[in-house]
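Team,

Forwarding the record for the chain on the shared tracking sheet. I've put the sequence and predicted structure together so nobody has to dig through attachments.
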Amino acid sequence: MSNRFFGVVPALAVPFTGHEINFTLLSEHLERLLRSGVDGLFIVSTTGLGHAMGIRSKLELVKYVAENRKSAFVIVNVASIEFEEIKELVKASEKCGVDAIASNVMYYFRVDEEGAYKFFTKVASLTELPFFIYNIPQNTGYNVEPKLVRRLKKDTKNLVGIKDSSANILQIADLTTIEDIAVFNGADETTLPALIAGARGYVSALANVFPDLFVSLYKAYTSGEHSRALELYRKILTLAVDLKAMPLNFSVYGSLSAIYGKDFALLESFRSLREDEVEKISRALSKYGK
């Protein structure tokens, strides 16, 4: 069941007007990503401000992307600290015909291994859809270790993969040894090392900005053009270092504003970019000819 999930998967950035999704600009962005040849879309994501969206916006986003994703597979992050909201989003995801759901552990309220085990098994049991673990320890305060994934694989019928954003290559390599688990790297700085370690692909924030670059890297590596893959990875690493010198959402949203010539805006509860951040983004984009 995990074999259908592979390749380049942007963690879809979502533009807002106030607290409403700007579907006009989202349509333009989605079309650009699909035209570049991405394989899938990870939505209601950290990059897309999913954890800060209200349930109505989440439901609108799932419906819109499911109807406009063309041949790309769609994974919906259903994570919430409110379990009734998780159930509602799972139900809507099923109705819209997405390909899988995902969830990080409970956040704000910290968990241990038993807490994470109970939470993941409960979320997975809500649906027949394939289920992905989303490991982002720097935000949740808990690292999902391979031993827990092995336990969950044994005890759940629909666990097919993990998006691991730990940037820990040893951990990713260990995860790839678990049978029938699709491992997706979630840290842009480790795209190529993760593929070499056995990852099936990557869920990327910066693929929103440079989809052609991330698609080219994946194609070069999987076709055996390893020198070309290394060349492309070095470009990605330079861009990641430059752009991640500020909060990630600022770098992605600021870059997309520059590319589209329109305000690819964060939710209004976030602060605006400072002038020095806009200048850093401009310099980084100019290195790549944007």
